[in-house]
Amino acid sequence: MRVGLLFGSFNPIHIGHLILANYMATNANVDTVWLVVSPQNPFKPSNSLLHEYDRLHMVRLAIADNPDLGETDIEFRMPKPSYTIDTLTYLQEQYPSYQFSLIMGEDNLATFHKWKNYEQILQYHEVLVYPRPGSAPVPEGLKNHPKIQVVSAPLLDISATFIRGLLKEEKSTRYLLPEPVAEYIQAKKLYL
Predict the structure, then answer these.
(1) Which residues pair with 130 in a beta bridge?
(2) What digits encode the pLDDT tens for the residues 160-169?
(3) pTM attached to this predicted model
């Protein structure tokens, strides 16, 4: 089983995440895509994050009707902040017959050399890169790496930050959020 891993805060999960995950699951060299809900990103402040279980629940609501997508809360049981190499190692131990690929935006590839043990990630895992608007140039050593594959996924410039701003101002998020996620946010009065 070839599993693509799309890491994120998913604060909240939105249509951009879902389009990307589904595109990768059906067009990249993987059988399925798991959305890895990160409790804390080491590169982002955590003060604006909803509780991890709310974010996980919204991911489950969003992908419930798509058999090509799954989710995991694996990082909830790991030391924080979460480092990708540690998560990949743990998943490989839990699922030794699976082949895990890392899905990342082109913007992250520019700073990939700063990630903890990035060489080890490239040694054992394929990295599937999708385009991001306004990305910095990719470092020369990574441009033609045999484990890095650029996937021509749709270019989407939708951010959770933008959506949180709309929610705070009580403006419409129609078509930006999956309906079950929008209903959950409204029912719990999140992001106000």
Answers:
(1) 105
(2) 999 999 999 9
(3) 0.93
